């Protein structure tokens, strides 16, 4: 006992300056957080600044104390002198550990209790905070104490620890902050009045015991530097391999909680129809999606089609399909207005195929040079599932013809698909791609199209391909499958579109869209710059459904998907020939923006882009 | 004995030899980082704009962090290492002024650090060659790449200056740097106008349309701060050439 106390006093006199520096650092941090809390409306507990202080302080102080108490003694070889004294080696190690634990937990608990007393916090709340702080600080110190005994290798151990935790959080569903000791100092620390968090305290105690055992093993059974380095390198290699292997834990498929849901018995598909009147429509969709899921496996070799969820959303426009993100669940979730979509079902099916196959390709299907083929194939393949496929094909051809009037159908328009998508909008662009894919199927057969599709879905592992070779990826694949030049196909495709355009009936069918003109510009207004829009067209008996989409662009050009555009409905009443207006002061000087005007075209079962402008606000 | 006031090439060569292990480590890290990028996705999907600090805040933070770390490693591999190895007295005994010694130390670190920046920029430019949508002016521009290189180089020199200044205080310098850095981050968070104090602002530039607004003010400010720190660095300990006494161990 006497020897232990003497050792403790020796540590105290040796590290007095460190203790003063740490106390000063803690006071500084507390002052900063107290100052910060005065202007933060979300801080409602007087203990919150103390909690914010001890979280980083315990880690920082653990690092410093571990270095001063453990590493320096071993580096300076002064522990050899200590070992020559009539005390046991474990007594020296234990004394160092207790000294560090007393200092670190003492400083942290003092901070919490001091603030609790100064702010007259309830005794129970102060006790809870103090106990949790003690557990947190002690566990953190034990970890740094054990790692400090690794000597110079400790830096590698710190990196290794950080890499392991990062890997665990990205590769699995493991959430470190839910366990002790981090759970003890979580966001509730400054607010909790009753719960001492016994589970987290027990976890922290278990971690401390494991680390303490490791520390004693390291201190009493000395490994050589070479052995330590070897062990560390093996551990680093193991963690690196784990981090390179993408083994995301499988997530549970998304499930609807509503009662108005029809589910497939054959595949993992569910449709939430919302209203009793749409149940039959939901069942029909299930049948179509079951066929799609089955053919994804048989024809395209998709090993495991994703779980598909369709939800009715009456707020959406006709032909509009919206995909929702599912960050915590498996599957794809699409929203559509099931009532409106019965008029042109190919949109919803194509969107489902698009989302499902894109996931199967790991996102590679959207690689720009093959994106057009993917869009066209999804539309072509979805139409095949429909009972009235001929009508749907006709609508898609009309879209393609209209697209070819807006933008010349060239090989470059297919290769640089992102600008094409922006100029035409998604619906017209997929129509244009559909015409090209239909023609390939007509000329080269269905098997050739499916072979092209499999190429899109296979994750390409050719890393070092030149840009020009990447650009011609589809052309090369087409030529190798069919043995015919790509240039010939493009000429045939252009001729086919020209021929269909000349048909008289076509003009009548798309007159409703081609008679409308839209213009968008930027003008200096009173509150900054305004976006000015004008739409002109022959009056109609029913109102038109149009929208203005806009978004701020980055300094460089990049593709902007329809989901990213901010939309504003444009009210075009029945029997009116014109609609105009301005969006005031939304953007300022120097901002690059994209503005588009889209209108619904019921004859095409789609939305048509009437204007698109990329500009910098002067 | 007359002391040389210039920076002899042999001194810089000696510094570079001393820093060679660190230079090799940095080269290894750069190449490993590039290989990791290639392992994650095919090279033809690599977008230059998302990897340059000029256009991506994540890349700006990453480059600031890596340059700061390397600058401190290089600075602490200079005088503090000489002090630990007890070779400082030998250096001061050479017929070279203390300014020249300091300049050689700084130049050695600067050459290594600027090589790291150049390598990073070159690897980024090379990687995006395979992306068909990057070239053709859509996400890559030569003037942006040149500016990214120049500003990153300026940031590297500024951070190296600060790191050399902190190395006077040896280990305490790292803690002091951490506290100052935390304070600067906190001030920038509290008062956005004070973000200019953060050296990261040198490479996190603003744009007017597609034109870069070069942060001349921040460049001048940090250059001035660094210039002010040099005399402090040099006045630590007396110059043996002026007093004739044994050199003091300032580091």
Would you spell out the secondary-structure blueprint of this structure?
The complex is a heterodimer of chains A (618) and B (251).
Chain A: H1 2-14, H2 16-39, H3 48-75, H4 78-84, H5 89-118, H6 123-148, H7 154-171, H8 198-220, H9 225-244, E1 261-263, E2 269-272, H10 279-300, E3 308-312, E4 321-324, E5 332-336, H11 338-341, H12 346-360, H13 368-384, H14 389-406, H15 411-415, H16 417-444, H17 446-457, H18 467-471, H19 473-482, H20 486-502, H21 504-514, E6 517-525, E7 528-536, E8 544-553, E9 566-572, E10 578-587, E11 592-601, E12 606-616
Chain B: H1 9-40, H2 57-76, H3 79-84, H4 88-93, H5 98-127, H6 142-166, H7 171-190, E1 206-208, E2 211-213, H8 216-234, H9 240-243
Antiparallel strand pairs in B: 1-2
Task: Describe it.
The complex is a heterodimer of chains A (618) and B (251). Chain A has 618 residues and is α+β, with helices and mostly antiparallel strands. Chain A has helices at 2-14, 16-39, 48-75, 78-84, 89-118, 123-148, 154-171, 198-220, 225-244, 279-300, 338-341, 346-360, 368-384, 389-406, 411-415, 417-444, 446-457, 467-471, 473-482, 486-502, 504-514, and strands at residues 261-263, 269-272, 308-312, 321-324, 332-336, 517-525, 528-536, 544-553, 566-572, 578-587, 592-601, 606-616. In chain A, the strands form three sheets. Chain A has a five-stranded mixed beta sheet with strand order 1-2-3-5-4. In chain A, helix 3 packs antiparallel against helix 5 and helix 14 packs across helix 16. Chain A is elongated. The termini of chain A are far apart. In chain B, 65% of the residues lie in helices and 2% in strands. In chain B, helix 1 (9-40) runs parallel beside helix 5, helix 5 (98-127) packs antiparallel against helix 6 (142-166) and helix 6 (142-166) runs parallel beside helix 8. The interface between A and B is medium-sized, with 34 and 31 residues.
């Amino acid at each position: 006992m006497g020897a232990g106390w003497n050792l403790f006093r020796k540590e105290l006199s040796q590290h007095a300056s460190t203790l003063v520096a740490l106390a000063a650092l803690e006071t500084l941090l507390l002052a900063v957080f107290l100052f910060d809390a005065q202007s933060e409306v979300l801080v409602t507990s007087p203990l919150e600044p103390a909690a914010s202080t001890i979280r980083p302080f315990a880690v920082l102080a653990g690092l410093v104390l571990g270095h001063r108490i453990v590493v320096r003694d071993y580096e300076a070889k002064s522990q050899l002198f200590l070992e020559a004294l009539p005390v046991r080696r474990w007594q020296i190690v234990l004394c160092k550990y207790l000294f560090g634990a007393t200092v670190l937990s003492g400083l942290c608990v003092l901070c919490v209790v001091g603030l609790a007393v100064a702010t007259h916090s309830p005794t129970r709340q102060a006790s809870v905070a103090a106990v949790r702080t003690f557990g947190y600080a002690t566990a953190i110190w034990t970890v740094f104490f054990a790692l400090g005994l690794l000597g110079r290798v400790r830096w590698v151990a710190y990196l290794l620890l950080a890499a392991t935790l990062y890997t665990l959080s990205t590769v699995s569903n493991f959430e470190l902050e839910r366990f002790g000791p981090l759970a003890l100092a979580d966001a509730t620390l400054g607010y909790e009045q009753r719960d001492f968090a016994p589970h987290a305290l027990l976890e922290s105690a278990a971690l401390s015991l494991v680390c303490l055992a490791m520390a004693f093993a390291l201190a009493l059974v000395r490994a050589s530097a070479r052995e330590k380095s070897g062990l560390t390198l093996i551990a680093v290699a193991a963690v690196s391999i784990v981090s390179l292997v993408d083994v995301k834990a499988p997530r549970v498929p998304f499930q609807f909680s509503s009662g108005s849901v029809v589910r497939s018995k054959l595949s993992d598909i569910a449709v939430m129809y919302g209203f009793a009147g749409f149940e039959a429509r939901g069942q029909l969709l299930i049948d179509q999606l079951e066929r799609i899921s089955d053919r994804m496996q048989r024809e395209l070799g998709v090993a495991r089609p994703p779980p598909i969820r369709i939800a009715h959303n009456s707020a959406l426009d006709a032909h509009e399909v919206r995909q929702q993100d599912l960050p915590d669940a498996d599957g794809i979730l699409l929203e559509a207005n099931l009532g409106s979509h019965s008029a042109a079902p190919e949109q919803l099916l194509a969107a489902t195929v698009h989302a499902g196959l894109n996931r199967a390709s790991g996102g590679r299907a959207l690689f720009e040079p093959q994106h057009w083929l993917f869009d066209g194939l999804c539309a072509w393949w979805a139409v095949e599932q429909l009972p009235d496929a001929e009508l749907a094909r006709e609508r898609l051809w009309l879209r393609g013809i209209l697209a070819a009037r807006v933008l010349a159908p060239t090989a470059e328009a297919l290769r640089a698909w992102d600008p094409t998508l922006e100029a035409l909008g998604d619906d017209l662009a997929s129509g244009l791609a559909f015409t090209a894919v239909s023609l390939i199927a007509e000329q080269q057969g269905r098997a050739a199209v499916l072979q092209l599709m499999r190429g899109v879905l296979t994750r390409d592992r050719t890393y070092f391909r030149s840009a020009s070779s990447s650009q011609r990826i589809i052309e090369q694949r087409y030529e190798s499958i069919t043995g015919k030049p790509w240039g010939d196909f493009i000429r045939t495709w252009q001729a086919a579109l020209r021929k269909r355009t000349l048909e008289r009936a076509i003009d009548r069918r798309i007159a409703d869209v081609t008679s409308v003109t839209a213009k968008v510009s930027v003008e200096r207004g009173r509150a900054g710059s305004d976006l000015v829009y004008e739409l002109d067209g022959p009056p109609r008996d029913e109102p038109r459904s149009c929208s203005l989409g806009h978004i701020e662009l980055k300094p460089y050009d990049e593709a902007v998907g329809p989901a990213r555009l901010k939309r504003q409905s444009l009210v075009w009443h029945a029997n009116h020939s014109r609609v105009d207006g301005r969006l005031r002061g939304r953007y300022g000087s120097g901002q690059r923006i994209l503005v588009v005007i889209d209108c619904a075209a019921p004859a095409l079962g789609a939305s048509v882009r009437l204007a698109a402008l990329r500009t910098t606000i002067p | 004995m007359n002391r040389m006031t210039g920076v002899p090439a042999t001194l810089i060569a000696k510094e570079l030899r001393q820093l060679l292990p660190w230079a090799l480590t940095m080269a290894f890290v750069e190449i490993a980082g590039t290989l990791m990028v290639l392992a994650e996705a095919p090279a033809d999907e690599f977008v230059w704009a998302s990897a340059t600090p000029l256009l991506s805040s994540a890349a700006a933070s990453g480059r600031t962090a890596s340059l700061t770390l390397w600058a401190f490693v290089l600075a602490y591999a200079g005088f503090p290492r000489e002090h630990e190895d007890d070779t400082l007295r030998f250096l001061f005994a050479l017929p070279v002024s203390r300014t020249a010694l300091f300049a050689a130390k700084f130049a050695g670190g600067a050459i290594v650090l600027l090589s790291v920046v150049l390598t990073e920029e070159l690897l980024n430019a090379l990687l995006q060659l395979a992306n068909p949508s990057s070239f053709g002016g859509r996400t890559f521009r030569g003037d942006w790449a040149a500016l990214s290189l120049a500003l990153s180089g300026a940031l590297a020199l500024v951070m190296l200056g600060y790191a050399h200044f902190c190395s006077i205080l040896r280990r305490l310098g790292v803690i002091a740097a951490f506290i100052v850095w935390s304070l600067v981050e906190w001030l920038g968070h509290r008062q956005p106008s004070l973000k200019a104090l953060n050296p990261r602002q040198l490479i996190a530039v603003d744009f007017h349309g597609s034109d870069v607004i070069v942060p001349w003010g921040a460049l001048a400010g940090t250059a001035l701060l660094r210039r002010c720190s040099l005399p402090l660095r040099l006045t630590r300990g007396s110059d043996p050439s002026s007093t004739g006494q044994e050199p003091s161990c300032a580091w």
